[in-house]
Amino acid sequence: MPATEVFGWDVGGAHVKACRLGAGGVLDVVQWACPLWQGLDHLDRVLATARQRWPQLPQAAHAVTMTGEMVDLFTDREDGVQRIAARLAQRLAPAELHFYAGDEGWYGSGEAAARWDAIASANWLATAKHAALARPDDAGVLIDIGSTTTDLIGFRDGNVLTTGRSDADRLASGELVYQGVVRTPLCALAPRIGWRGRPLNVMNEFFATVADVYRLTGELDPAHDLQGSADNAGKDLAATRRRLARMIGLDAREGSAQEWLDFARAWRACQLREIGAQLRRVLTLHGLGPGTRVVSAGCGDFLVPELCTLSGLDHAIAYGTQVATVAPAAPDAAALAAWAQVCAPCIAVATLLRREAGRCGS
Q1: How far apart are CA 104 and CA 124, in angstroms?
Q2: Cα–Cα distance, 7 to 347 (Å, whole number)
Q3: Domains 5-125+324-359 and 137-322 are alike in CATH topology
Q4: CA gap 162, 178 in Å, rounded
Q5: Using CA atoms, how far apart are residues 259 and 31, in angstroms rounded to an integer?
């Protein structure tokens, strides 16, 4: 493997995250919208954009993880891993691709199809492993809140604590919460919600997403708000209020701006309660107490301080600044660290591959 640079990839169902890692750390990191369920041509578009940004891609080493195999474009996860791996190998040729397979290590393009089950949805494990190795003296928990899901992963003595590796196992343990801060349908958060002191049943329709909540509260960075709205309309405050109102059979004109903000905050509280309850399950499962070190990541990291308070934990350290390393020579290190926070899995796989190469003396 070349000693100079490694490119890390996290190919998701809605976004592709990628980074350029040099000997001194992260040199560049980016997130692109990629609605993979609509077709592999969206991945082709992202890869073409990446080759324009980084002309050296075909000559570099690449570390790849993915969750995009889950989208309903594919017959099953095996089909998804095979087709994504083949597409990457084709579009990045003649690059050297290494697919992250968790405990099994790394597989090349020619081996990915046979080891699809180890490669599928292993991005959380890369991030947690990187955090554990970076904080070897800590007992900790990674809280990675993304656009679609939340990962809650314990670590201790440089090791990831969970024995579960599949999404199904982690859904059972609470270590995977299928809620994020952008794409989650709002009706998934609660069956009933309060309006003017009266609890109402929620309309189980795709009228709004969680992005509408955090857009109204002002917490969702527009740079992370890359997916279309539920009605494919605008993302201004007026359009956001219209979508929220539909959830309880109202029109936006039937409430004041303050009332709709309070309504958004009520949904926010529902999500905090659910993620907080799952976090406490994970802490109990692994015997992690009040001194647990929290590592935050993801575009929803703005929720982590309150989650810590609800669970009796100290405030978190940021993956982007205290786990990832930004190269001293990189321009605008603060901006890179912020994007590293959002795009943790691609940083993690690139770092783990470089670490493996160094350990093997290559």
Answers
A1: 15
A2: 9
A3: yes
A4: 18
A5: 34
Roughly what angle, to the nearest 10 degrees, separates helices 77-91 and 41-53? 40
Q: Which residue type sits at 96?
A: E
Strand 5-11 and strand 61-66: pairing? parallel
Burial class (CB in 10 A: 0-12, 13-18, 19+), 105: middle
| Residue whose entry in the numeric block shows the structure tokens 């995977």 | 176
Element (H, E) at 199: strand 198-201
Distance between CA atoms of 351 and 127, rounded to whole angstroms? 10
Could you report the per-residue pLDDT of 219-263, keeping only the tens digit for each? Answer: 999 999 999 999 999 999 999 999 999 999 999 999 999 999 999
Amino acid at 31: Q
pLDDT value at position 1?
A: 44
Q: Considering the domain 5-125+324-359 in this protein, what is its CATH number?
A: 3.30.420.40
Architecture of the CATH domain 137-322: 2-Layer Sandwich (3.30)
Buried b (16+ CB within 10 A) or exposed e, 231-258: eeeeeebebbbbbbbbbbebebeebeee
Which pLDDT tens digit goes with each residue over 111-150? 999 999 999 999 999 999 999 999 999 999 999 999 999 9
Token output for 215: 């857009």
The distance from CA 4 to its chain's CA centroid, rounded to whole angstroms, is 27
CA torsion through residues 185, 310, 339, 334, sign = positive
Per cent of the chain over pLDDT 90 is: 93
> Crossing angle, helix 344-359 and helix 123-134, to 10 degrees?
60
Question: CA–CA separation, 222 vs 135, rounded Å?
Answer: 31
Asked whether 13 and 71 are in contact (CB, 8 A), the reply is: yes
- CB count within 10 Å of CB 259 equals 15
In the chain, where are the structural domains located? 5-125+324-359, 137-322
Would strands 106-107 and 139-145 be described as parallel, antiparallel, or unpaired?
Answer: unpaired
Q: Give ∠ CA 135-67-37 in degrees, rounded to 5.
A: 150
pTM here is 0.95
